[in-house]
Amino acid sequence: MGEKKKKKRNPIPLRVNLIFFMVFLLFSALILRLGFVQIVYGDDYKNEVEKKEDVVISTSVPRGEMYDRTGKSIVSNVGKNAITYTNWKKYTAEEMRDTAEELAKIIKMDNDKDLKKISERDKKDYWILINPDEAKTKISEEDKKQLASKYKDDKKEYQKAYDELLRSRISETDLNKLTDLDMETLAIYREFQSGYFYTPHIVKNEGVTDKEIAIISENLERLPGVDTLRDWDREYEFGSTLKTVLGNVSTSQRGVPAEEKDSYLAKGYSMNDRVGLSYLEKQYEDVLKGQKKKVKYIKDKTDDIVGSEILSNGSAGNDLVLTIDMDLQLEVEKIIEEELKKTKYGYAGTKYLDRAFVVLMDPHTGEILTMAGKQLGTDDDSGKQIVNDFALGNITTSYNVGSVVKGAMVITGYKEGVLSPGTTYINDSTMQIKGSNPFKSWKTMGNINDLIALKQSSNVFMAKTAIMIGKGKYAYMQPLNIDLDAYPKIRNSFSEFGLGVRTGIDLPNEMAGFKGAIDPNQPANLMFLSIGQYDTYTNMQLAQYISTIANGGYRIQPHLVKEIRETSIEEGQLGPIVQEIQPKVLNKLDLEPGWMEQIQKGFRMVMQPGGTGSVFAGASYSPAGKTGTAEAFYYDPLNKQEEPPQVMNVSLITYAPSDNPEVAMAVMVPWVYTTNNGPSPNLTIGKRVMDKYFELKKEKD
Fold first, then answer.
1. How far is 630 from 99, CA to CA, in rounded Å?
2. Of 28, 36, 55, 279, which residue is most buried, by most CB within 10 angstroms?
3. Which residues contact 367 (CB under 8 A, 6 or more apart)?
4. What pTM does this model have?
5. 263 catalytic residue (yes or no)
6. CB-based contacts of 614: which residues, under 8 Å, 6+ apart?
């Protein structure tokens, strides 16, 4: 039986199906790709076809202002005309120069400032720009060949060398051909170049007249990129008063500090935005800056603006209401200046005296009512004596403060179990450790307790207390061994009052002071620590310290800002409160009942007859406090002596009324005299200031 012939399959349908399948896959891939392109890149390709671009421009707004606690304006904004330039289209150098020349025909730049900024290199570059054909003749073909041979593989270096050679060929005669109009144009052209793409840059904001503004506004079509606006300057209503504390704001030319560029740009700032550079202006930058107006501009394929949309209207910065009472501040500054001069020129041995500080603070809230400092100086031009604001010195300079620390020292003695309030008696007589100088109080007091030690300011009582804390055994003219743990024990106790640590004030760059070295071979240093003549403290720390005693043991953070308010639309009125700064307790002293009351009693005795602060005796406001005198050394940073002269610092801490404190005060006057005895400007300043505080209070009540 023969085999049946197998039927051959027609290969065409299979091939057709395969082709259809491949076509299906290709179309599927194409559809997916088109969908992806449409979704992900659709807007980009649409803009590319239409040649449109969205550019968002942010416009600065007025900065928040500052007021004192009674509503008096301290720092305000004064509006002024300004001319700006925005490089919308990435204009060429020639286009920018042409615009600059047109603008130069309308305005005059400040010859004393703008024209003096122009360097010889600027002039040469500008000469090349306006004389391109003549510039080409300055470089020969042979010059080009030599440069090409030297930099054949580096076009960038070739161009750099070419430009430098060309500049060197431009003579003084060439530059002298630049006209006055050329120089005005160059000054404006430099400002144009210093701006950033799509960011308004101020070309001129000093002395811009209304007439200039009107002419520019009428000719904007001939001045591409040029516009006008209202700029502002900071005005300080009280001149130099508190100026060092208020801080400064950058100019639009400087913009954000270069060293903080990345931080500011990350927050949405532009490079030419004006920002707070120091102290309150910088500390509260986020509050004062406001929200910039944002406008989206739509550009067509020729880079012309064809539409705009306001994204955000922006808002002016919030205002700060400070805790400062400017009436009181001015009176205190006047007192400091008068007493500083009186002491400087009325007594011998006051060669190094040049500064004094006063802080007045609410001991319960930490609100700083006055932060004053004055420094004597010499005018560089006239050579005459001047007085500069140095309020900042209350937190940026520190000194040996003397006996004012003795309240904290007595508390430390209680805590360490070596003193008992009112019942521990120590013999006050001259001490001397073997190998050291005699150590004594200003007079021999005999057996005294803590109250008398505070009232009459016994050095010996404090020194022997410190030795007991250090588990030492003192004997006249014998060596002294102490436990070095006494240093941190005393310092830690002092820090609970605010001594030797930053107070936390709402200002940057506060210093903590300096701690003396712990030397096991110098046990007398512990004795000096106990009387405020070893470590250094700021006057703000003294204010926090006395406030802690006045309020019964709470270390309150001092602050200069009382409220943050919205800008008011009505002139002379404060806006609604955004935030009220609440008192902040940094720590509470862990004390047994009666300890703080004992210190307060001793401080009241200081201000009574027989006390070191008896100048306050009879004051109607019933003060309590402590005086201080410290032997120190004067270090001149400009003329470092091998053996710096010894000087006397004087200080004062006080609060009143003693039974219900409402104000605490710290006074610091360093380097007062070099003689054995001298004046006490701490007391004269302190008494006058406290008298004035209650006098003003009575007037306002």
1. 67
2. 279
3. 69, 323, 361, 558, 559, 562
4. 0.81
5. no
6. 607, 608
